[in-house]
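It would be a great kindness if you could assist me with a short task in structural biology. The matter concerns a single protein, recorded as an amino acid sequence and a row of backbone structure tokens. The record follows directly beneath this note:
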Amino acid sequence: MKQRIRQSAVLRLLYASACLALCMVLPFLTGQIPQIGNMLSPMHIPVFLAGFLCGPWWALAVGVMAPLLRHLWFGMPPLLTAAAMCFELATYGVVSGLLYRLLPRRTGSIYAALIAAMLAGRVVWGAAMAVFSGVSGAAFTWAAFLAGAFTNAVPGIIVHILLIPVIVMALRKAGVIR
């Protein structure tokens, strides 16, 4: 029993590490054109996957660490954005991981967990941006929130809704996750 628990913890650590590595690499695919990277949000994909693969607490760690490490290592995203993204991505990981564990194991539950996490994360991002902008003296308006969280993010939202459930179902079919 102890051996199985240790093995499970090691697997979650390995999956979380792989998701964190993907958070570092995927933005390079869209980094040449920053507007496309902002719209597709490639760093979000591995954090959502970490929620489904590793559970809420490992995904929270991936979500907090990814933007900070990318900022420290590559200078992108800018510090204010990276700080707000820490809260957003942590929320994505926690909500998707918790809901995936709590909801019945149906395809619709994957979508429900993903969409709820997306909405919660965007609200938390908006709150973080409002606080950080207030501290720095910059304005963060309702229009800026709607544009950043929804209007400009529509392509990424579509990609996430189309891609992540398919990956989760494939991992489930392969026996990687329950």
